[in-house]
Amino acid sequence: MAMLDRSLSVSPFSSSAAGHAGPGLGVHRERVSVEDLRPYQRPRPISPSPSGEMGDDCCSTQLIDGDGVFNVAGIESFMKTAKLAECGLSYAMVSIMGPQSSGKSTLLNYLFHTNFREMDALRGRSQTTKGIWLARCANIEPSTLVMDLEGTDGRERGEDDTAFEKQSALFALAISDIVLINMWCHDIGREQAANKPLLKTVFQVMMRLFSPRKTTLLFVIRDKTKTPLENLEPVLREDIQKIWDSVPKPQAHTETPLSEFFNVEVVALSSYEEKEELFKEQVATLRQRFFHSIAPGGLAGDRRGVVPASGFSFSAQQIWKVIKENKDLDLPAHKVMVATVRCEEIADDKLVYIRADEEWLQLEEAVQLDIVPGFGKKLTAILDKYLSGYDMEAIYFDEVVRTAKRQQLESKLLEMVHPAYQSMLGHLRSKTLDDFKEAFHKALERGEGFAVAARACIQSFVLKFEKGCEDAAIEQAKWDPSKVRDKLRRDIDAYVASVRAARLSELSAQYEGQLNTALIEPVEALLDAASDDTWPAIRKLLQRETKSAISGFSSSLSAFDIDQATTDKMLAKLEEYARNVVESKAKEEAGRVLIRMKDRFATLFSRDSDSMPRVWTGKEDIRAITKTARSASLKLLSVMAAIRLDDETDNIENTLSLALVDTAKSGNANRSIQSSDPLASSSWEEVQPTKTLITPVQCKSLWRQFKAETEYTVTQAISAQEANKRSNNWLPPPWAIVAILVLGFNEFMTLLRNPLYLAVIFVAFLVGKAIWVQLDISGEFRNGALPGLLSLSTKFLPTVMNILKRLADEGQRPAAPETRRNPELDSKSFRNGVYHNSTSDASSNISSSESGAEYSSPLTQ
Ligand SMILES: Nc1nc2c(ncn2[C@@H]2O[C@H](COP(=O)(O)OP(=O)(O)OP(=O)(O)O)[C@@H](O)[C@H]2O)c(=O)[nH]1
After folding, report:
1. Any residues with CB less than 8 A from the CB of 528 and at least 6 apart, and which?
2. HEC letters along 341-379
């Protein structure tokens, strides 16, 4: 009753309405404007359009038709026209119930300046409002929606058809903050009051709300009589209480007072038909109570179950659906359900909008191609736009639901934009890597040490990458770029390793080349001059060059900052390379040993100690020369037979010498030794197989081949020597000379006694010598005796004739001073019994020297 008392105390009609219900009453006087207090000019009743809408300008629609069908299209259109979605929670819902043709629509139109259809008074009382109509009140803050319900106890539906009445009552209670109960003044205190069944229905359906919110029931007493309201109100409240008490309640609410569910307010209005002006004034005053109705202390009941305006359409549909299905209506659960659906819708809208967002599409396209400066800020702004949009739209929905849906939206948004972020990081990574490569190469070209340059560049570019990541980061997510950074580090490290490997390889190649130059030709020369000092010299050369290369290589490696083990390994490799160079060269030379041996033999055999070609005159000891030359060749073979880089000693030379040279000397006397031939083996004693270049067997074979191939030279030399001897040995043997002297003593004495004979003999000698030279008798017989005789027989007579003719010519020619010969010249040009001019003399010299060289030419071959 305390509530009733309080309500009554604030009612403009509770005390002052008695007797003189006039304007100026009520608690909201200070907010009343002149416009509001001015009696409202009743709008002309209008007829609903076939679609159920009353017109565009009045912002109203039929929410549920007479058959209980919800007008989804109508309410969506109404929501847009009334811009309801923008109201958030700042709106109030008012509905009116009451008997049919009790002036409900008339009251609403005057109270809220709406255009609900009213009955034409001239046509008599019949049902004008069917179903439930919805309109937006004009010029009331906050936005107020009003529902005009179909009248109760109408003749049109029949006495028993109360299903729609109950459904619409429940619907109105579920969504309204204020429910106006329209009743005739004369029904108060009457047992058969017209609105008693209505109130019963209201209280019954209220029980079906699982957790009802407190609704304000504003009883509007129509056609107020002269009885003051303070007298009427207790009677009315008594009636209400009786009805409440008579309503069957669930166990939980048997003792629950009416005030638990309802704020009861009462107003009384004069008759519109009889006291229209007064009616209007009272209605204008009542209108003031609807201003700021949802503020604390306002007319509206508690706002626990209110759904945000943007969810009103969906909420109303769902409530009506539940009511139609005759299920219990759990308003808190309904509120959560509406919040869930609406927040999802809002979130889905945001996703759809962002996918078509021009700014986002441009950013997404740009980041596919290259780095986008300020990517993080741009994307943050885009995401923020849609997330704040969501927050604004969903702000009035259940916080738990709203937050959960926001998180879902954020996750979806982040999932959608994450590939762009990844793409950005990808560009950053590849750009950083490219820049690193360029800077690193430049640093190396400038001559910076490899390790120093690598360290500085890595530090600088990883820092750059991290700055880029910071630029790409968005505020809505803590995305971790460490994986990409790690990949970049791996790529950089791999690149540095590859450059290091290439540089080291170049460096190795450079020192290897240096070793090749320093070793190959000198080793070849040393091996060519095979002697006892050959391998010590090669060892010395190898040590010197290796030391030099290792020292250079080692200092170059220090710039690479590589570990000691690797450095040692590389140095050892270079050292081994140097050794391999020498060994390879030795192997190569060993492959040509036979040629070398022959060359050496030919050189020593065909040239003397002054390197002059030998002329086999007959004085040379061919056997000794051959032996010396062969020994030298054998020396070559023994030097080439094995690699001796480790200062090792072996017995190869002795073995070869014993087996190949001394065996021949000892001849066949040592047949038994031959049976244990030291060369009948494929390896040398004390020499590792890897160090063996020519095996004993190969040596033997080579020697045999060498001997066979040099034998011809020796034979040629011997032949030449014998030929020379023959050509120079024209004197008869000494015994013949002695015989001649003894036997020819008488003839000699005769000659001495007669000098004329001497002259004749001298002339005969000269003629004979001339014929000898002219005929070149020795030359003719060179090709054999028979061809020589045949040739001489043909040439002899003409030559003799020629000589005689010349003598005759010389005898007849007078001596002339200018043609006198220089006796000195004559003596020079007369050689071998014939004259030669100076030119022929020169050619004769050449020919002579050539003929002298004829003996040596076979040897030099
Ligand atoms: N006596 C009386 N009649 C009124 C009053 N207000 C309106 N009327 C008349 O009652 C008749 C019905 O008015 P409506 O406003 O259409 O009544 P309603 O309750 O909306 O009617 P339904 O929508 O058919 O239920 C009209 O002829 C009005 O002129 C009033 O205060 N007193």
Report:
1. 589, 596
2. HHHHHHHHHHHHHHHCCHHHHHHHHHHHHCCCCCHHHHH
802 backbone dihedrals φ, ψ, rounded to 5°? -65, -45
The rounded distance, in Å, linking the Cα atoms of 393 and 410 is 15
User: What number is the ipTM of this complex?
Assistant: 0.97
- For 593-669, strand residue ranges (E) read none
- Map residue 96 onto helix, strand or coil: strand
- Tens of pLDDT, residues 160-178: 556 788 888 889 888 899 9
Report CA(272)–ligand 1 centroid distance (Å). Answer: 8
Q: How far is CA 705 from the centre of its chain?
A: 67
Residues in the chain, overall count: 861
Query: How far is the C-alpha of 847 from the C-alpha of 458, rounded, in Å?
Result: 84
Phi, psi of 382 (to 5 degrees): -65, -50
Strands 143-149 and 132-136: antiparallel
Angle at 779 between CA 774 and CA 783, to 5 degrees: 140
Task: Quickly name the fold that domain 2-329 has.
Answer: Rossmann fold (3.40.50)
Contact predicate 702/593, CB 8 Å: yes
Structure tokens at 372: 């986008």
119 Cα: distance to centroid of ligand 1 (angstroms): 6
- ∠ CA 312-318-322, nearest 5°, is 145
| Cα dihedral sign, 211-216-221-222 | negative
Coil, helix or strand at residue 29: helix
Closest C-alpha among 519, 658, 497, 633 to residue 582: 519
Strands 215-222 and 178-184: parallel
For residue 203, what are its two tokens? 């209280």
Q: What sign results for the dihedral spanned by CA atoms 638, 643, 644, 650?
A: negative
Distance separating alpha carbons of residues 620 and 516, to the nearest angstrom: 44
Cα 10 to averaged position of ligand 1 atoms, centre (Å):
27
Which letter does DSSP use for residue 562 in this model?
A: -
Residue whose tokens read 């450079």: 510
For the segment 77-131, what is each residue's pLDDT rounded down to a tens digit? Answer: 998 888 888 888 889 999 999 888 889 999 999 999 998 887 665 555 555 678 8
Residue 670 structure tokens: 């040592």
pLDDT digits (tens, 9 = 90+) for 339-360: 999 899 999 999 999 999 999 9
Q: Is the CB of 114 under 6 A from ligand 1?
A: no
Atom of ligand 1 nearest to the CA of 98: 19
Instruction: Map residue 182 onto helix, strand or coil.
Output: strand
Ligand 1 centroid to Cα of residue 799, in Å, is 181
Find the range with the poorest average confidence among 62-71, 360-369, 779-788. 779-788
Residue 78 CA to residue 754 CA, distance in Å, equals: 180
Atom number, ligand 1, closest to the C-alpha of residue 121: 27
| Residue 831, beta-bridge partner list | 834
* 407-440 per-residue burial string, b: 16 or more CB within 10 A, e: under 16: eebbeebbeebeebbbbbbbbbbebbbeebbeeb
> Count of alpha carbons within 13 Å of 247, Cβ hemisphere only?
26
Q: Is 491 helix (H, G, I), strand (E, B) or coil?
A: helix
CA distance 641 to 700: 11
Nearest residue (by CA) to ligand 1, atom 32, is 271
How far, in Å, is the centroid of ligand 1 from the Cα of 103? 3
Kindly report the number of other CB atoms within 10 A of residue 476's CB atom: 15
Span(s) in the chain for CATH 3.40.50.300: 2-329
Q: How far apart are CA 273 and CA 277, in angstroms?
A: 9
| Backbone phi and psi for residue 835, each to the nearest 5 degrees, phi listed first | -85, 150
Q: What is the tens place of the pLDDT at every residue in 204-219?
A: 777 777 566 788 999 9
- Return the structure tokens found at 657: 């010498």
The pLDDT of residue 48: 42
List, in sequence order, every beta strand (DSSP E) within 404-463: none
Contact between residue 141 and residue 180 where contact means Cβ atoms under 8 Å apart: no
